[in-house]
Write a structure and sequence with these properties.
The termini are far apart. This protein has 249 residues and is mostly helical. Helices cover 68% and strands 0% of the residues. The protein is built from 8 helices and no strands. The radius of gyration is 20 Å and the shape is globular.
């Protein structure tokens, strides 16, 4: 049993889009699309939110504890400053508090950030059933589940285009701060100093610093795309309301 927690894991390495990877993605999709439709009252929904929040926090703390145990935790690599680390704690807080700004952050920013890792997880030798395999899919899948559950189950939503620009603006400011932090301590948070060694979508965006511009452009496109369904629905409602008012008048 201990081998599944081991640093020197002798089991199968992670296989991109292998059976275990695809199985994990299918499970997350099923939970995201179907789980919120279960008939639940206010107390049951509260239990779901607190349970998922607790799971996210415990899972993230375990990730840090595993690295500390094996003596490989470093300030340069493992401070919770990358987007997905931030999204885990923001998701947990938002699930408990139902804070509007927290929701907008995890919906508009957390979903695309976590989805990218779910598609190209940097697991290397730690394939199924190593504990890190489960950890990465719980953390990033949990962010997606939290955002979609609050949207579909709790009926939260970004309120306007201002939500999009607010999240985008704060993200740009945060990235600027992290860029200078990377320069100061020699880290690579947000992958602003260089591309990660593992294969990711960044490999298709050119060399440094041009891939950073690609990241920004794709990020803005994804954030806009995630708000677009709400924009369309609001336009239809406004159009129907105007039509009804005109008929009555």
């Amino acid at each position: 049993m201990g081998q599944y927690f081991a640093y020197d894991y002798n089991g199968p390495a992670f296989v991109q889009l292998g059976a275990a990877h695809i199985g994990a993605l299918i499970l997350i999709i099923i939970l995201a699309l179907a789980g919120w439709q279960l008939p639940m009252g206010k107390e049951q929904r509260s239990v779901v939110r607190w349970t998922l929040a607790g799971l996210l926090v415990i899972n993230e703390l375990f990730w840090h504890a595993w690295h500390i145990y094996y003596g490989i935790w470093t300030v340069k690599a493992l401070l919770p400053l990358n987007l997905c680390n931030l999204m885990v704690f923001t998701s947990a807080w938002t699930l408990v508090s139902k804070n509007q700004l927290g929701y907008e952050v995890i919906y508009l920013l957390g979903i695309p950030a976590a989805a990218q890792v779910l598609i190209t997880p940097a697991l290397g030798p730690y394939g199924y059933p190593h504990v890190l395999f489960f950890q990465i899919f719980i953390s990033h899948g949990g962010v997606v589940l939290a955002a979609l559950y609050l949207t579909l189950g709790e009926r939260m939503r970004p309120r306007s285009w201002r939500s999009v620009w607010r999240v985008a603006g704060w993200t740009m400011l945060y990235a600027l701060i992290i860029f200078w932090l990377n320069q100061a301590i020699g880290s690579n948070y947000l992958f602003l100093a260089y591309k990660p060694p593992a294969a990711t979508l960044l490999d298709y965006l050119g060399p440094w610093p041009w891939y950073i511009l690609g990241m920004v452009a794709i990020g803005l496109g994804l954030v806009t795309g995630l708000y677009w369904p709400f924009h369309i629905r609001d336009r239809r409602r406004n159009s129907q309301s105007a039509s009804t008012d005109g008929t009555i008048g």
